[in-house]
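Input for the complex:
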Amino acid sequence: MAVDMSMPVLVVDDYNTMIRIIRNLLKQLGFEDIDDASDGSAALSKLREKKYGLVISDWNMEPMTGYELLKEVRADPGLNKTPFIMVTAESKTENVIAAKKAGVNNYIVKPFNAQTLKTKIEAVFAE
Amino acid sequence: MALADASHFDRLVDFLKQKRESVTFHDIIALAEVSAQSLQSFFQAMDAKVYRELREIAGYIESMRHEIGALQVNDLKNTRIPAAGEELDAIVQATEAATNTIMECAEAVMAADAGDPAAYKALVEEKMLVIFEACSFQDITGQRIAKVVETLQHIEERVSRFADVMNAKDIDGFLTEQERERAERKEKFMLHGPQLAGGGVDQAKVDEMFP
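Predicted:
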């Protein structure tokens, strides 16, 4: 399945520079409708207001982590089908396993490059 | 240590054997005198032992005062640790400023119209120069980090020495409620932070888990 570049994407990170990096990479890939949130709870509010085609989230944020956001999204019948990619510096095996168990579609370890982001997005929409 | 002189007790026994039938007030006084003599050496020995122990305690307290002084806690608390904190703040600010500058340049180049090759080339050259300048933050940052590392080593040396001299044992638990909450949050949400080389899985390993 081809990736629909017109779909809204929500980028969740507490570090402005990282949001800017991901935004620029997504723009380069052809995405135009990109929003951002600085933690899980802000992201959850946005997800309940607007239909997003993809969530790209960091893990370690306050007050709500990306892991909690993922579990909230998967527990919400209106959101549970939203593709979710974790982009994080949390690279312990237990984190990857926990995220997979919670229903993450893919996992990117920081620092990452544009090609990895592109490949992962394509892989998620090829499922 | 002998608690009392045994010869005094022998004298008491002999005395009581002789005076079994007719003990007078004078005899009782004499008896008390002999008893007091027999316990004198016990009290002398006890005094010496208590004195020695108190002297040892005083010596230990004096040595502890010296070791606490050697920690230089006031210098650490009032000067070194705040200075290290300021250096780290400056590092964060410098890195953020440099990143912003570099990203602004990259964004300007990406958004530029390449239709006029000469103008585009001039813009790229100008922005590249700004990027080179922004990268100079690394030299200053390296020096700041060296100062923080020096402070950490200073603290480590003193704390290690203190722990060795005092034969300190760790006590479980948390110093404050906030410390406990932070630790519990880290544990609950698996917040380990970035790992050093070999400490976590790399992207290739992650990819194997998402076939």
